[in-house]
């Protein structure tokens, strides 16, 4: 099986305890911390075991002891334009082994874990790329008016 990829789909397991740990700024020892997007506009924060890495320009590593953890968690919790609640989860590899923790309002689309290289790839929903504030995409609607000053209902 030489040359076969060891990259497999991981999963999330939601946990109120994980959410509470982030919200109380608990630092998981032996973990690397990353946030998604910019420090002043983060969409998610993760803590993964130090033996793993996220190799993406969208995910930026930071030191949770630097005082940034409280700021980032607060901004993630206040992030608008998606789900109304922030949730915490365990991050698991394809075998169900816990490799870290997740905190966000975003829906995670996929997590890939390469156990050979210890690389983690996390893909999320991207509401910031949509041209409106709808969480669930386009629907059927009716409206009355013109020039952008009408009223309407969307289903």
Describe the structure.
Helix content is 12%, strand content 41%. The chain has one domain (7-128). The chain is mainly β. It is built from 2 helices and 12 strands; from the N terminus they run ββαββββαββββββ. The strands form 3 sheets. A 6-stranded antiparallel β-sheet has the order 2-7-8-4-3-6. Strands 1-9-10-5 form a 4-stranded mixed β-sheet, with no helix packed on it. A two-stranded antiparallel ribbon has the order 11-12. The radius of gyration is 18 Å and the shape is globular. Mean pLDDT is 82; it is low at 1-5 and 135-143. The protein has helices at 16-23, 68-78; strands at residues 7-9, 11-14, 31-38, 41-49, 53-54, 59-62, 87-92, 98-104, 108-114, 119-124, 141-144, 151-154.
Number of helices: 2
Largest sheet: 6 strands, antiparallel
Domain count: 1
Indicate the low-confidence ranges by residue numbers. 1-5, 135-143
Rg over C-alpha atoms, rounded to the nearest angstrom? 18 Å
**Strand runs, count:** 12
SSE order: EEHEEEEHEEEEEE
Strand order of the largest sheet: 2-7-8-4-3-6
The fraction of residues in strands falls at 35-45%
* Basic shape: globular
> On the 0-100 scale, what is the average pLDDT?
82
What is the helix fraction of residues, given as a range?
10-25%
Category from helices, strands and their pairing: mainly beta
| N-to-C CA distance | 51 Å
């Amino acid at each position: 099986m030489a040359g076969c990829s060891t990259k497999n789909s991981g999963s999330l397991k939601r946990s109120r305890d994980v959410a509470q740990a982030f919200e109380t700024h608990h630092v998981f020892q032996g973990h690397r911390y990353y946030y998604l997007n910019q420090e002043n506009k983060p969409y998610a924060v993760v803590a993964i075991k130090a033996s793993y890495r996220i190799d993406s320009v969208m995910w930026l590593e930071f030191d949770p002891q630097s005082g940034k953890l409280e700021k980032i968690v607060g901004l993630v919790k206040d992030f608008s334009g998606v789900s109304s609640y922030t949730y915490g989860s365990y991050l698991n590899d394809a075998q169900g082994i816990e490799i870290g923790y997740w905190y966000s309002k975003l829906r995670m689309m996929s997590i890939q874990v390469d156990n050979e290289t210890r690389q983690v790839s996390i893909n999320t929903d991207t509401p910031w790329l949509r041209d409106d504030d709808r969480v669930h995409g386009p629907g059927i609607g009716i409206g009355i008016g013109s020039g952008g000053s009408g009223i309407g209902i969307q289903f």
